[in-house]
Amino acid sequence: SQQGEEDPQALSIQEGxxxxxxxxxxxxxxxxxxxxxxxxxxxxxxxxxxxxxxEKHSGRLRVTLDTSKKSSSLLxxxxxxxxxxxxxCARSERYIIQGAQKLVFGQGTRLTINP
Amino acid sequence: SQTIHQWPATLVQPxxxxxxxxxxxxxxxxxxxxxxxxxxxxxxQLLFYSVGIGQISSxxxxxxxxxxxxxxxxxxxxxxxxxxxxGFYLCAWSVGGLGYRGLGSTEAFFGQGTRLTVV
Lengths: 115, 119
What we know:
A: mainly beta, B: mainly beta, about 0% helix, globular
């Protein structure tokens, strides 16, 4: 399969709690990216972490990358109802053609924040 | 600023009919262009990518084809739709050429998607 593995497939928490989603992969990567998708919409890029980085922050988002374990996690702190969406990790693999990248997406985690 | 347009938003087509979905990008040159398909409740499957006019690579064998007649135009087509072609189709672009640090690896920007139902 092209796709990586994400867990959990679905996560439901109370507003204000932290949400953690995990992503694993099998191949070597240039970088790993996290995207958000509201129901029936396109994907929006959240954060990109390069293969030589271990942790990255953006607002309430914290992403870690462990290349030895081929895994990444996305932490959303102090969750809000508006964070309800599906979250996808995508690994960037190089194509033979210079300048091209192949973004391979995981199955996603459906996050529900209960008010 | 860059924008991506994808249309139509929804489409209902009978089995055996042709398909043409169009995607255009504004505000950038020589982008990498992608077509993805998303089944209900699933991740995205990469169908085609293109690094330049007339340069199309297919990721999976299928009933679909793609063309790039202009630098910022990407078209997904089929001569005869199958029921299994139903799904949510997403066009995306990323910075082409050398990209970030020469690796060509940058974030992707997605269109709003086309919900295709083959009946």
